[in-house]
Protein: Type II secretion system protein
Organism: Vibrio ziniensis
Amino acid sequence: MKRQGGFTLIELVVVIVILGILAVTAAPRFLNLQSDARVSALQGLKGAMDGAAGIVYGKAAIAGIETKEAASDVKVDNITTAFGYPTADADGIGNAVVGLSTDWAVYEDTASGVYYATFPSSSSTSNTLTAAPTSCYVKYTAATSKDVADAATTEVVGTADDC
């Protein structure tokens, strides 16, 4: 009689149990993908804001207006600037980054020169926030003088646990 090769039922059950144990231990690592994706989206927005601010500053420097304070007539391609960088409002950084005010929920703190952007709420029909977000957002701070130390800054606030 010819001997047939193959796996026994016991061997198959053992392999399935081992795979089940591996799946249970690896599952928590993959369950946090949405939070990681949200943080990555914020980092992408930060990069877009930094890039737009750098391009606007370069154009302002070419035009010779990089040392002027914010005013309605100090514009680069319809973007209001302060010391060469976009101002922290819809006419400044809002115009510099395409889709910022339509794809993100935004809040302007004009008194302190800060512009916030975060994920829009599914329950809200407007992308304009009534108060600054408390976690998981991008914060753009306008330039306060022509010194390099006072240039515009952008930062991501929040971690995967916050988002």
